[in-house]
Structure formats: structure tokens, C-alpha cells
Amino acid sequence: MFVSFSDTRLGVLVSKVTLSRWISDCFLFIYASNGKELPFKVKAHSTQSVATSTAFQARMSMDDICAAATWASPHTFVTPYKLDVVSRGRSSFGSTVLRSIFH
Prior knowledge:
Layout: H1 16-33, H2 46-57, H3 62-69, H4 75-78, H5 93-102
């Protein structure tokens, strides 16, 4: 359950659209805070793609990625989720995302 924190709607349940916008805004904020440009158009649905692709780029084992994402097989990752997170010369993408989470 997510509720609004604005003065005019304090405590009111937020819509799916609002929650989606908040998640997308978090991506934008993290990248902007690190002086980076988003490598792709981000949507709330992108969170699992970004997280698993970043873990893969950071050399996390496929077994660990599959376990965290509750996937039975690496094939689930390779086809729809594996993003080219180092495209356009942004080889530090994974490090930037992980650093922003832990700092």
C-alpha cells in the first residue's frame, strides 16, 4: 500500500500511474545525481531489467540472479531482460548504479 504525502491528498492511496511515475523519477534522480544520462527510456517496469542487467554486468553469477528474480532458468533473463547496460560508452553503468544505492 502506498499513500500520498502531499498536503492536499495526505493519506490517500496513490494510483498505479503515480507510483509508476515515482519509480521512474527515482531512476532519473539517481542518474542525474551522478552526472549521468539514462542509457535508455526508463519505465517503472524497467526496474527488474535494470537490476538484473546491472548484477550481470557486475559479474554476479546467473544462479544468484535467477534466485533473486525467482526465475527457474537463465533463459528468462537472456531474452527479455538482458539490457546492453554498457552501450554508448557507458562502461561504468553498473558501478554507478550500485554506488548510488550504497551511498
